[in-house]
Design a protein that fits this description.
The complex is a heterodimer of chains A (332) and B (105).
Chain A (H helix, E strand, L loop, with lengths): L6 H12 L5 H12 L5 H15 L2 H24 L5 H23 L10 H27 L6 H28 L8 H24 L8 H22 L2 H24 L8 E2 L13 E2 L4 H17 L18
Helix pairs in contact in A: 1-2, 1-3, 2-3, 4-5, 4-6, 5-6, 5-7, 6-7, 6-10, 7-11, 8-9, 8-10, 9-10, 10-11
Chain B lengths: L6 H12 L5 E2 H8 L3 H13 L3 E5 L11 E5 L1 H11 L4 H7 L9
Antiparallel strand pairs in B: 1-3, 2-3
Helix pairs in contact in B: 1-4
The chains are: A mainly alpha (332), B mainly alpha (105).
Chain lengths: 332, 105
């Protein structure tokens, strides 16, 4: 067996990749040493103890801790998808989960985005946004496994269409998010905080209104008002601070897209589990006056995707770090 | 006051100090000090961080094997090894515990 590709080498290679940049040389040292040890118990012991040493470094534990939620969501989504009755639809749902899980990683390694910015604001917005997207993936897969799929071609076509539409929409949001929070983006920490903060506040206001007036989520109107209000407030607040039209546009689009995303996820997930609401697709419930039928979230999703696309296009790369003293990031 | 190194660190320092000019590689050193790689490498990392150990990559490895990482003590490392090898005195130990040393009876 090729010693560079045996289990010991693979195990150590995996552990070394988790080491922080300043310890990578030590990882390469361990790998070089392993390469000179003949196959057998010594080689396995060397790889296992080196892996233990690498994994017990505090920085490695932190990096590992960041990956666990992603692995958990991925595992949960794949387990849920396993319950989808039609094999073809099940495969498509798993592909959707894998594509969306790999997308942020891939986008950050390609010219689409670049690594996440070093600032706390960018990391928080990135983690929060991806968590909301992951929640929607779980909600969607859970919905797909309960779809009344009779095995007919028409049912499979409907399910496939839904999977393609949701994958496209969530891809749009994910790309906007990784571009917004990328190290090479010229978006300042203040713009990011303003856009994301006002987006969350507008969605929270919409939710509070829904609890007071349960008919609020039964139409797209109040959601559109919340999205528009978020855009206006964030644009105004950003312009007050930066005086730059481009920053103001990004803040407005970030707030609006964020509000749309949160409201759509609330309609798709938590609200349909709470009284007095029922899902748009639920069978008729009598007496009708005791329940409120939630609006189909597709309108909010499509509006949000348009806003997320506009946001992606509005983000410019940072030209010169020195020109942007308040930038969250410098050119990577 | 700097912390006294662990027994394992003292062993590594002592072995490296026996021939301070010689470059050693990790696996060989681990066998010499009877430490598993998982214990040895963190010690080497700490010694490197403190400027007690210098490292380099093997310049001319044989064909089919990647270059090894080699280690030897710096001048500060040699001093630290000598200090670590010196026996601990009772007054120093007592002072660390905040009480006067007992005089031998």
């Amino acid at each position: 067996m090729n010693r560079d590709a045996d289990g010991a080498a693979r195990l150590l290679g995996w552990a070394v990749r988790l080491l922080p940049a300043r310890r990578q040389e030590w990882g390469r040292a361990m790998q070089a040493e392993l390469a000179s040890i003949e196959p057998g118990p010594d080689r396995r012991r060397f790889a296992v103890t080196c892996t233990r040493a690498a994994l017990s470094r505090p920085a490695t534990l932190v990096r590992l801790g960041r990956r666990l939620p992603v692995a958990g969501v991925l595992a949960a989504a794949i387990v849920l998808a396993g319950d989808i009755p039609l094999a073809g639809v099940r495969r498509e749902a798993i592909v959707m989960v894998v594509v969306l899980a790999a997308l942020p990683w891939l986008a950050r390694r390609l010219a689409i985005a670049g690594p996440v910015a070093a600032g706390r604001t960018a990391r928080l917005v990135s983690a929060g946004g991806l968590a909301v997207v992951a929640a929607e993936v779980l909600i969607f897969i859970n919905y797909a496994r309960r779809m009344p799929l009779g095995g007919g071609e028409a049912d499979a076509t409907v399910a496939t269409t839904l999977i393609v539409v949701w994958t496209t929409m969530l891809t749009t949001y994910t790309i906007a998010l990784v571009r917004l929070t990328a190290g090479r983006s010229a978006v300042t920490a203040h713009t990011l905080a303003t856009g994301a903060g006002i987006g969350v506040a507008a969605a929270a206001a919409w939710l509070a209104a829904a609890f007071v007036h349960p008919e609020v989520p039964t139409s797209s109107g109040p959601a559109v008002v919340a999205i528009a209000a978020a855009a206006v407030c964030a644009g105004w607040a950003s312009r007050q601070r930066s005086g730059r039209g481009a920053e103001s546009r990004v803040a407005a689009l970030c707030a609006a897209a964020g509000t749309a995303l949160l409201i759509a996820v609330l309609i798709d997930g938590p609200l349909r589990m709470l009284p007095p609401w029922v899902a748009n697709s639920a069978p008729p419930v009598y007496p009708a006056e005791t329940t409120e039928r939630l609006v189909d979230s597709i309108g909010v999703w499509l509006l949000g995707c348009l806003l997320a696309t506009a946001l992606s296009l509005a983000i410019r790369p940072s030209p010169q770090p020195a020109d942007l003293p308040n930038a969250t990031v410098s050119v990577a | 006051m700097p912390r006294r190194p662990s027994r394992q660190t003292v062993t590594v320092l002592t072995v490296l100090a026996t021939d301070p000019g010689r470059w050693r590689y990790g696996y060989e050193l681990g066998q010499e000090v009877e430490l598993k790689a998982g214990s040895l490498y963190p010690i080497l990392m700490r010694l490197g961080d403190r400027g007690l150990l210098e490292s380099t990559w093997e310049s001319d490895p044989p064909a089919g094997r990647p270059a090894r990482h080699l280690y030897r003590l710096t001048a500060a490392g040699i001093e630290a090894a000598a200090a670590a090898a010196a026996p601990r005195t009772k007054p120093a130990r007592a002072a660390r515990h905040g009480r006067p040393a007992r005089s031998p009876s």
